[in-house]
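Handoff note, outgoing to incoming analyst
You'll be picking up this chain. Sequence as last confirmed:
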Amino acid sequence: VMLRVIRDITRQPIAPARGTSVQALDLDTAADVLRQLHPDAVRHKFLAAFLRAHRRFRGLAIAIRRKGRFQGAAVGRISETCPDLVEAAFHHAPVPSLESVVRGFEAAVSTFGLRYVGFSVPVKQENLFKQLGYVRSEHDFFWTMYTLRKRVRQTTS
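Most recent structure output, in case you need it:
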């Protein structure tokens, strides 16, 4: 079971985890990240998210490195229903590196001047994300991913 967690980064100190570097991905560097991901299902998710986001959300695909070694990656997309929200369409990191990837992703999002960062996470990771300042999303634009629309009939007078 997956949860959607969210953090408002407005007026929050945002910086990558100490000792890590955040690298924005282009086609060449994404190919390098792809080689470092395992198993094939994770590679497929990364590639699909990266290709969907590459042209439209350049700068929201990142790799995290510590002392030159790959720690994880994330790819974001700006929500169509809430233009202040960036959702991580893909994120991958072993648990010890999770904070590095989350903080690096927040740093990338903050350069766009956006307010919310959201992740879809397994229930078992909820406490890890709570420690990082995330809460279960109660915003309908992120929780359901639906917007309400009502068809209005035009009347003639």
